[in-house]
Request: fold
Amino acid sequence: MNSLNINNIIRFVVLILAQALIFNHINFIDSVNPYPYILFILLFPVNNNRTLFIFLSFMLGLFVDIFSDSGGVHAAACVSIAFARPPILKFAFGMIYEHQTIKFNNTEFGNRVIYFLILIILHHLILFSLEVFNISNILLVLKKTLFSSVFTLILCILISVLFSKKQR
Amino acid sequence: MQQIINFVLRNKTSLLFLLLFFVSIALTIQSHSYHKSKFINSANFFTGGIYESASSVSNYFDLKTQNEILVEENNKLRSQLLNDLDSSLTSISRIDTTTFNGRYKIQTAKIINNNYSASKNYLTINKGEKHGLKEDLAVITSKGIVGIIDNTSNGYARVLSILSTKSKINAQLKANNHIGSLEWNANSSSIVQLTDISKFAPVKQGDTIVTGGQSSIFPQGIPIGIVDNFVLDISGDTYTVDVKLFNDMTNLSHVYIIENLDTEEIKLLENPVNE
Reply:
């Protein structure tokens, strides 16, 4: 339990710094940036305290906001996906989630991709609609959401595969 | 009372979610109004320090291009100086100092964080209040304008980039004095829009756009870019001009900060005290 906490604290700090110093400055084809810092929310242990989880997600988003000068858009998006996570977990993993024994390392790959994808699209949609904050620019929002989601999804899967422990 | 407490305890996650969501929405809306985002900005001790140490490493990667830019600017200034020398021999009242009675005070700074992918972009520079910076100072490079300082801390300052839907800067055609305002539609990081140019203005592709003399922030005549394309507005009265920037906003390092020493006086004159 203790190592789990330390693990999460390290993840929190490293992901924020990586987002601020590396991923915010990728600017692929002029303006596409990935946001893999939400891996913290995606991989947070399921059976933990939900209130704490939502609060931590808010802090995560707020720190990224401070680094990227974006008001509160990341915080809003992070809090929303943290709140919406349980139903999406149920949808993506079905029965295993019901028994509260889920471990992301030994779930099926396809299920994990679907789970990542839904949360990433939700996060990016909220993020960009708040950031652009203009209904007449809805096409710009959708375009940014699409490109960034693909980018984030690929990075999230790569990172989670690279850093997962082998289960033998 | 018991029931209220029970209700709160039962729905504590939803209530916390709603609370935090509204806090973040409030922060977002606050950041949309000019000069209001005091709390959430990258010009503070903590983020500024992290950005500064990161940029002290990444600096080395584009030393070569930055040197070339400097040499190019030196070249331009030197040729200006030499050509100016001839004409100045005739005028006797030339004072040999750069600070005497000058209207503008210039400082250099380094950009430690540059964003250009969002719809409201900011840059962070490594100088702040202790170097005499304050809000509403102009930030330029040797090639063209960059933005306006909109938030300062002790050691760092945040610059509102011209690549921001919030930014509005007075600009004009170089050839004649038709003025308009410079905005950005968030589409491309090398093109900004000049709106409200009168339809009687003779606009041509390739014309140079410079800052206008109507703002007390930017001195008149700082280069911005060239006309790339222009269309008549829907109303039919004004042109909207696409301006291709001289600056490569994606690759900035050293900037100049211009302080207009007459700003106070101009402001006092424009807003006389109500009696």
Remarks:
- Residues 138-162 of chain A form the longest helix (25 residues).
- Chain A has eight helices and no strands.
